[in-house]
């Protein structure tokens, strides 16, 4: 509850998340990292989410951003991880600011919103468009945390403790070895030193990691609500319809368990290393469905508890789950449209647009 009230994690929590291996989870083996699996990360993030969804959100993103940074040239990776793999990396993948080409690098400046965990980051990955391009040439730039100023701008309903503030950067030089094309990340382009966890298309795993904190928060909400409902049943209060509580518990448990099964299936598919469009779009679809199910399950619990939801765990879980599910990558309508378009195109014998390149704009729509 402290992170929710203070709108930030505390130093002890950050140290524990780092010690648990989240920052190093996808760091290449060459730099002492784990090159871990999406299945293990889903389970670990959801477990943290049962205690604090904001902590889980930051843990998931610090893990994911190390996967992004594996696309840097070797010298750029050395700048980040030469002293060890436990480097916290925050990011904003929505293109912003200005990048000016110089003979041996770039002059980067501007503002980037919704940079989760930025106050505790060692490095940032910031997106900007190449000058004079058609909008498709987006780059990610690795900059030290000391090169940016943090403006307090995160006043959200849910996930309040993520500290997803705005990063402000005065013109600063970024050498060529600290930048890479966003398109390589989106498509999951193979390259030297990249393991299987790095070379998967963005949509194969992106929504999965945003949904994992909500899974933990929903499980916590179910536990808290069940304890309240059991006490209510035991009290024999005449204003409570016992069958209503039984049905709410069963249906919300169905929703949350189903969401977990879908997310675990998506994680296994990501771990397989598949690059097939049908798998990418299926993962995108099922993670969006999972988010919807978590919202439905927690919403039912919240409404059934009514005023008894109070301002405690159930209220916080309700806010956190709704906030996570609102993310761009978890929008069920756009995910369903992309999936159905691919299926219909295949049945009609048409050549579908490749999933890795067609979704660049959506991938860079922001992370909050």
UniProtKB/TrEMBL annotation:
<dbReference type="Pfam" id="PF08028">
    <property type="entry name" value="Acyl-CoA_dh_2"/>
</dbReference>
<dbReference type="InterPro" id="IPR046373">
    <property type="entry name" value="Acyl-CoA_Oxase/DH_mid-dom_sf"/>
</dbReference>
<dbReference type="InterPro" id="IPR009100">
    <property type="entry name" value="AcylCoA_DH/oxidase_NM_dom_sf"/>
</dbReference>
<protein>
    <submittedName>
        <fullName>Oxidoreductase mmfh</fullName>
    </submittedName>
</protein>
<dbReference type="GO" id="GO:0016712">
    <property type="term" value="F:oxidoreductase activity, acting on paired donors, with incorporation or reduction of molecular oxygen, reduced flavin or flavoprotein as one donor, and incorporation of one atom of oxygen"/>
</dbReference>
<dbReference type="GO" id="GO:0003995">
    <property type="term" value="F:acyl-CoA dehydrogenase activity"/>
</dbReference>
<dbReference type="InterPro" id="IPR013107">
    <property type="entry name" value="Acyl-CoA_DH_C"/>
</dbReference>
<dbReference type="InterPro" id="IPR036250">
    <property type="entry name" value="AcylCo_DH-like_C"/>
</dbReference>
<dbReference type="InterPro" id="IPR037069">
    <property type="entry name" value="AcylCoA_DH/ox_N_sf"/>
</dbReference>
<dbReference type="GO" id="GO:0005737">
    <property type="term" value="C:cytoplasm"/>
</dbReference>
<dbReference type="GO" id="GO:0050660">
    <property type="term" value="F:flavin adenine dinucleotide binding"/>
</dbReference>
<dbReference type="GO" id="GO:0033539">
    <property type="term" value="P:fatty acid beta-oxidation using acyl-CoA dehydrogenase"/>
</dbReference>
<feature type="domain" description="Acyl-CoA dehydrogenase C-terminal">
    <location>
        <begin position="208"/>
        <end position="331"/>
    </location>
</feature>
<dbReference type="InterPro" id="IPR050741">
    <property type="entry name" value="Acyl-CoA_dehydrogenase"/>
</dbReference>
<keyword id="KW-0560">Oxidoreductase</keyword>
């Amino acid at each position: 509850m402290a992170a929710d009230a203070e709108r930030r994690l505390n130093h002890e929590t950050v140290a524990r998340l780092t010690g648990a291996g989240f920052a190093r989870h996808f760091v290449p083996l060459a730099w002492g990292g784990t090159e871990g699996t999406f299945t293990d990360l889903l389970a670990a993030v959801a477990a943290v989410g049962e205690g604090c969804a904001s902590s889980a959100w930051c843990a998931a993103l610090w893990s994911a951003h190390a996967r992004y940074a594996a696309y840097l040239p070797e010298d750029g990776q050395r700048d980040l991880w030469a002293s060890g793999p436990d480097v916290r990396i925050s990011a904003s993948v929505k293109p912003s600011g200005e990048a000016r080409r110089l003979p041996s690098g770039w002059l980067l400046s501007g503002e980037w919103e919704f940079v989760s965990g930025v106050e505790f980051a060692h490095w940032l990955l910031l997106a900007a468009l190449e000058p004079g391009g058609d909008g498709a040439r987006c780059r990610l730039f690795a900059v030290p945390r000391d090169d940016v100023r943090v403006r307090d701008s995160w006043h959200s309903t849910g996930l309040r403790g993520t500290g997803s503030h705005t990063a402000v950067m005065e013109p600063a030089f970024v050498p060529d070895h600290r930048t890479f094309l966003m398109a390589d990340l989106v498509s999951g382009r193979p390259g030297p030193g990249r393991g299987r966890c790095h070379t998967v298309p963005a949509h194969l795993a992106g929504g999965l990691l945003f949904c994992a904190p909500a899974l933990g928060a929903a499980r916590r909400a179910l536990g808290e609500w069940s304890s309240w409902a059991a006490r209510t049943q035991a009290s024999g209060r005449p204003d409570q319809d016992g069958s209503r509580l039984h049905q709410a518990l069963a249906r919300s448990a169905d929703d949350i368990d189903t969401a977990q099964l879908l997310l675990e299936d998506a994680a296994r598919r990501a771990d397989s290393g598949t690059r097939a469009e049908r798998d990418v779009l299926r993962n995108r679809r099922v993670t969006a469905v999972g988010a919807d199910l978590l919202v439905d399950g927690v919403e039912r619990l919240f409404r059934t508890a009514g005023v008894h939801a109070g301002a405690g765990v159930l209220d916080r879980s309700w806010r956190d789950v709704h906030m996570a599910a609102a993310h761009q990558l978890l929008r069920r309508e756009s995910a369903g449209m992309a999936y159905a378009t691919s299926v219909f195109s295949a049945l009609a014998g048409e050549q579908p647009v490749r999933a890795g390149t067609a979704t660049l704009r959506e991938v860079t729509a922001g992370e909050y």
